Amino acid sequence: MIASFTSHRSYTHSILGVIFFGIIAADLETSLGINGLFYTCIGGYISHLLADLKILPVNKRGVKLFLPLSSKEF
């Protein structure tokens, strides 16, 4: 819900976003009882962030990995 009030590549594309998503993924794994679901979710989330980095030529904007401490795009 909180992510719907922020821009797309802000807090959801930072380390803070990974932490919050990890909490959600851990709870999902526990509630569904599917072993390995947490690691699958986190792996997908982090690979999405890596694909959004400026190192790829198709990305004009990067991600702000260290929000709220720094707004530098990577």
Instruction: Give the N-to-C terminal Cα separation.
Output: 26 Å
Taking the sheet with the most strands, its summary is: none
Number of helices: 2
Structural class: mainly alpha
Strands, total number:
0
Helix content: 40-55%
Segments where pLDDT lies below 50 for 5+ residues? none
Whole-number radius of gyration?
13 Å
The chain-level mean pLDDT equals 89
Shape: globular
Beta-strand proportion: under 5%
SSE series? HH
Brief summary:
By secondary structure, the protein is mainly α. The chain is built from two helices and no strands.
Overview of the structural elements:
The chain contains two helices and no strands. The longest helix has 18 residues, at 15-32. The model has no long low-confidence stretch (mean pLDDT 89). It is mostly helical. Helix content is 45%, strand content 0%. It has helices at residues 15-32, 37-51.
Main attributes of the structure:
single chain; 74 residues; mainly alpha; 2 helices; globular
Topology:
Blueprint (H helix, E strand, L loop, with lengths): L14 H18 L4 H15 L23
Helix pairs in contact: 1-2
